[in-house]
Amino acid sequence: MGEIIYKKQFHRETIDEIEAAISDSKEDLGDDFEQAITFDEIMKKIYSDVTYLVLPKREKKAKAFIKTAIEISNDYKIDIEIEEHLSHISVTYYFDCCAGMGFLREIIEMADDISFFNHIKSYDLVMSLDFYTKAVFKRDRLIQPKCSDLSE
């Protein structure tokens, strides 16, 4: 085991703290708490006032992204799922205990965004990589991809 040269841990709320905060919210809102907006209403609000700009060169690069993702999956026998969304392609890899994952560097560098989840579909770790084929603007502000040159 190596020597720790830096470590910092941030406060993680306990379930008791979370429940207390929810309870306080219920009391603060009173009767309005029961009329909280639904999930569908939240999603409608999130996707309102969104504009998409087609990026033809990125659509071509998406093919290389997909090809690389599939090659890595086949070479290393990693479960994979690829989804096409309105604005991007998502590659999701499913892992059980893992180490020495440097072979993923190429696909990670191609991605615009990366997310990790645990205990999804009985896997220890899930990594989702997003590659944007369209620029996403919310209220005229560029959200994704996070590149300054939209001509790429």
The overall pLDDT average reads: 85
- Fraction in beta strands: 25-35%
Distance between the termini: 44 Å
What CATH architecture of the domain at 50-144 do you see? 2-Layer Sandwich
Instruction: Report the sheet with the most strands, covering strand number, pairing sense and barrel closure.
Output: 4 strands, antiparallel
Which H/E pattern describes the elements?
HHEHEEHEEEE
CATH topology grouping of the domain at 50-144: Alpha-Beta Plaits
The CATH class of the domain at 50-144 is identified as: Alpha Beta
Which structural class is indicated by helix and strand composition?
alpha+beta
Helix content: 25-40%
Continuous helix count: 4
Shape: globular
Strands in their spatial order, largest beta sheet: 2-3-5-4
Number of strands: 7
Low-confidence stretches: none
Cα-atom Rg, whole angstroms? 20 Å
